[in-house]
Amino acid sequence: MQSRSLVGKTALVTGSTSGIGLGIARSLAAEGANICLNGFGDLQEIAALRAAIEHEFQVKTIYSNADMTQTSQIAEMMTQAQNEFGGVDILVNNAGIQHVAAIEDFPVEKWDAIIAINLSSAFHTTRLALPSMRAKNWGRIINVASVHGLVASAQKSAYVAAKHGLVGFTKTTALETADSAITCNAICPGFVLTPLVQKQVDARAERDNISNEEAKKSLLSEKQPSGEFVTPEQLGALAVFFCSDAATQIRGVAWNMDGGWVAQ
């Protein structure tokens, strides 16, 4: 039986039309939270996704196509949530992009975009969500960082810098809200089989002339000792836990769910 512990709450999840964000949004909806979806995609598919979530979990949804590099669009999204639901109770900063290149070859525009989407957008959503959370004296801010917020990999300078920054921002937010019933924590996933990671698998399969399954095993063997992908559903369950009363005194942590990656 679902506890439906989040009935009456509203969750805004950036980058939630697919992958990790969608998994987290569905997990929060299963607990009764109304959902603000954000991301890009085919509008008919997103409409069908909203209808499915509303029907399956008996919650309300809205959708914003706000570009996370544009502060004015982020502000409009937060205003939309305020007008529709009276504010955001649970903020999940998940939107992210990736680019792989050596530092000296890294395109400046890619660096700027990664920092904007993976880091700066979390600042803008948080600063706009906090007044309503403080007025209610309740809130949960969950920043989806990465194992790359804890350790580095070559060729990923912008992503690693942004995710380390997001972990630091998480800690500061937790300290500034420590005297309230607002918490802020980060989730640091290892490899999750999202469309982003599937592209890496496909590229490896083509490069090494191996099957897709062999490419998956090869990718995991380099970093993730469990040999298994983390799932969006597992990350969603952790997000639900962070929203529970049991997690009230968990503040400012960077919780890795990574199949043993960071333990090495």
Automatic annotation (TrEMBL):
GO terms for molecular function: 3-hydroxybutyrate dehydrogenase activity. It comes from the Bacteria. InterPro entries: 3-OHbutyrate_DH (IPR011294), NAD(P)-bd_dom_sf (IPR036291), Sc_DH/Rdtase_CS (IPR020904), SDR (IPR050259), SDR_fam (IPR002347). GO terms for biological process: monocarboxylic acid metabolic process. Belongs to the short-chain dehydrogenases/reductases (SDR) family. NCBIfam families: PHB_DH, PRK12429.1. This is 3-hydroxybutyrate dehydrogenase. It comes from Undibacterium baiyunense.
